[in-house]
Design a protein that fits this description.
It is a single chain. The two termini are 35 Å apart. This protein is an alpha+beta fold. It contains six helices and 20 strands. Strands 1, 2, 3, 5, 7, 10 and 12 form a seven-stranded antiparallel sheet that branches. Strands 4, 6, 8, 9, 11 and 13 form a six-stranded antiparallel sheet that branches. Strands 15-14-18-19-20 form a five-stranded parallel sheet, with helices on both faces. The radius of gyration is 21 Å and the shape is globular. It folds into two domains: 140 residues, Sandwich (Jelly Rolls), CATH 2.60.120.260; 212 residues, SGNH hydrolase (Rossmann fold, 3-Layer(aba) Sandwich), CATH 3.40.50.1110. The N terminus is likely disordered. Helix 2 packs across helix 6 and helix 4 packs across helix 5.
């Protein structure tokens, strides 16, 4: 694909973007998203390579550049989305997004040498979809060859816990627009990926399950649960916004599945049909096996629900696959912080401690 870069000036007229030749005093280098030196990560919609869309948390962008600053031009369709930005392997920084077209500063005041920037979507699909438009550098800046991605790969299929919900909850679980509670970067899944030096894809959606969501809704209600969103890059409830994922693009070595909490939410008033739930869960696991024949698949009931019946159903689904490389992993219950049942940041770290040795042994890492 042809690389498109140039020194241009961005101007917004009547709410739309217009690209114009720059004046020397206001010029900067604009790099469009079809540039091969920009490394997109995660299960992303690249149907339009000039305007890739990020839905799942943990999706993002990796690059190296020469220059003192860097910004990102994008469109966000909500006021609830945020990014995590890591500059030169330093501390992760929160970048809040507004609704609409905008340019956000990712780094400034750097020395003139080479730098690495990682950008990850911090929030979930239902909190907003982000469309990337360009990377903006100073006029004398330049992209460099991106750092190599880890050779290993891990996929995490799950619900809000996998997505990092509640990781940054405050003591009263009061919503704070300046500090969203969702934080995929510090959730157990992405932290496991960093510890195990693996590319990490999060394929998760808060409130969703295998056969029904926390409200009892499923495919008949046009609500995509895991068997449906597994094959999507954009798992929107709005059919027109959805985008399919081509699973041939990336192959994980290990897949960690944590589902069932939301199916069980109405268990006391509307009990699950155990046979149907187990059969659908087994079909999901077989779909993963068909997509990724060499992957090791780990299955757990998650950290929130303590009912042994859910554990039994999950174990039954694993057994129904008759697949020796699909295994059940016992979960440890973590209670959240008293006002929210999602595991806290510290509890997510304990989840990593619980799971890391299991994955290392099974994958021989």
């Amino acid at each position: 694909m042809k690389i498109r870069t140039g020194v241009v000036l961005f101007a917004a007229l009547a709410g739309s973007a217009l690209w114009m030749p720059a004046q020397a005093t206001l010029s900067r280098t604009i790099v469009f998203l079809n540039n091969a030196q920009l490394e997109l990560v995660g299960q992303i919609d690249t149907g339009n390579p000039m305007r890739p869309r990020l839905g799942y948390p943990g999706t993002g962008l990796l690059l190296r550049f020469q220059g003192t600053s860097l910004s990102l031009h994008l469109i966000c369709d909500s006021e609830k989305s945020a990014l995590t930005v890591v500059v030169d392997h330093g501390a992760p920084a929160l970048v809040l997004l507004q609704k609409g077209e905008q340019t956000v500063a990712l780094a400034s005041g750097l020395d003139a040498g080479a730098h690495t920037i990682e950008v990850y979507k911090r929030t979930e699909t239902w909190q907003g979809i982000v469309t990337l438009l360009s990377v903006d550098l100073p006029a004398d800046g330049a992209l460099l060859t991106p750092p190599p991605l880890p050779a290993r790969g891990l996929m995490f299929v799950g619900d809000s816990v996998t997505c990092g919900a509640g990781v940054e909850n405050n003591a009263t679980c009061t919503p704070d627009p300046k500090h969203p509670a969702n934080d995929a970067y510090d959730g157990f899944a992405m932290e496991l990926g960093r510890r195990l030096d693996a590319q990490t894809h999060l394929v998760c959606y808060g409130g969703r399950g295998v056969t029904r969501d926390y409200r009892g809704l499923g495919i008949a209600d046009n609500v995509p649960n895991a068997p449906q969103f597994l094959d999507l890059a954009i798992a929107s409830d709005e059919t027109a916004s959805r985008a399919l994922w081509d699973y041939h693009k990336w192959t994980p070595d290990g897949i960690f599945v944590s589902l069932g909490t939301n199916d069980f939410n109405l268990q006391k008033t509307k009990p699950l049909n155990s046979d149907a739930f187990v059969a659908e869960y087994a079909r999901l696991l077989k779909t993963l096996r068909a997509h990724y024949p060499q992957a090791m698949i780990f299955v757990t009931e998650g950290a929130i629900v303590t009912d042994p019946l859910l554990r039994k159903y999950v174990q039954d689904a694993v057994a129904a696959t008759q697949d020796t490389r699909t295994v059940w992993v016992q979960a440890t219950h973590y209670p959240g912080n008293g006002c929210d049942g999602h595991p806290t940041k510290a509890q997510n770290q304990k989840m990593v401690d619980d799971i890391e040795s299991v994955l290392r042994k099974a994958l021989d890492w």
